[in-house]
Amino acid sequence: MIIFNSKYLLIILFYPRFTVTLQPQNKTRSFLEETMKIGNIEFGPQPLFLAPMEDVTDIGFRMLCKRFGAAMVYTEFVSAEALVRSIKSTVSKLTISDEERPVGIQIYGRTTEDMVEAAKIVEQAHPDVIDINFGCPVKKVAGKGAGAGMLRNIPLLLDITREVVKAVNVPVTVKTRLGWDCDNLIITDLAEQLQDCGIQALTIHGRTRSQMYTGEADWSLIGAVKNNPRIHIPIIGNGDITTPEEAKLAFDRYGVDAVMIGRATFGRPWIFKEIRDYLDNTGAAPLTVDEKIDLLEEQLRINVERIDEYRGILHTRRHLAASPIFKGIPDFRQTRIAMLRATKVDELTEILKECRERIKSLES
Ligand SMILES: Cc1cc2nc3c(=O)[nH]c(=O)nc-3n(C[C@H](O)[C@H](O)[C@H](O)COP(=O)(O)O)c2cc1C
User: How many domains, in total, are found in the chain?
Assistant: First the structure.
C-alpha cells in the first residue's frame, strides 16, 4: 500500500478510464465566432485550462503545464477561513509568479464575511482572476456547507458571489457542479443567477455533488448552459477529458469557450501540447520518451527543492503512479512498487533511468 499525503487518495486509486459521453446539441457555436475573454484577458480560440486541484496545482506543476500550452492555470483551493486567520500554510498558497500568468487563485468558504475578507487578501497577491469554489464534494468541505455544500443553500451562494464581486477589482469567476444530486440539476438556472451577480466566467464540472467522481460527466447539461441565449459569460466545460479527440468533441458539440482538464494531467503535463497540436492541426512531433521522463525528473527536482527530499518525493508520487508513460512495460509491477516506495532522489532517478531504457527498447 502506498501512502499518499492526500485525502484524494481514493479518488486517484479508483479513478477509472472514463469515456466521455458527448451527446450532440442542436445549437453549436463555431469557435471562430468569438475569442474567449475573461475581463480583459484574451485567450484565443479553444483554450485549454488546467483545473484547480488540491495538492497538485502547486506553482511548479502550474509552470510545467503552462510551458506545454495551458492557457490558464489555477492554484489549489484556499480556505477563506484559514486565510482570514493568517494560517501560514494557507497564505503560502497565494504565491504566484508572473511567468504563469494568467493565473487564478481559488477560494472556498462558508460565510459571506470570510469570503469577502479572503477575496480582499487574495487581491493583494495580484491574481488575474479570483475563482470561487462551489464544487468541492469532499465531506470536510461540502459537509460543512462550503464548496458543493453551497448547492443546498443557493441564497447564501448568491450572496457570497455578489459580495465578493463587489469587494474586489479583479474579475471573479465561479467553478461548480450540475447540482447537489440528480434530483436537483439546477445548473441552468444557477448559471443565470450567477451571471446576474457579476461573475465573468463559469466553470461547470459535469457531475453532481452526490456523484463525487463516479459515473461519467454529463456534458449535455454543460452544453445547455452554453447554448442558453441569456448566457453571455464564457462557459468553461470540465469533466473526464483525457484525449485530444474528447477535447475537440467538447468544443465542437457543446460550443464551450474553454475546456478544463484535471486528472488527465497527472504525470502528463504535456497533455496540453498533445491537445493543442491536435486542435490546431500543427503536425508537430509528439514528445519523445526521453523528453517525457526528463520532465518527470524535472518535476521531482522542483518538488524536492520547494519542499524537502522526502515530502517532495511523496508529492511527486501521484504523478508517477498515474503517468501513462509506464503503461505497456511488461512485468512492470515490481518496478512500479519500487518507484512508489523510493524515498531518496538518487534511488528514484536510477529507477526512472531503468524505465527509460525499457520503454526505448520496446519502441525500437
Ligand atoms: C486531487 C484532486 C484535487 C482537486 N482539488 C480541487 C480544488 O482545489 N478546487 C476545485 O475547484 N476542484 C478540485 N478538484 C476537481 C477538479 O478541478 C476537476 O473539477 C475534476 O477533477 C473533474 O475534472 P477531470 O475529470 O478533468 O479530472 C480536484 C480534483 C482532484 C482529483
Answer: 2
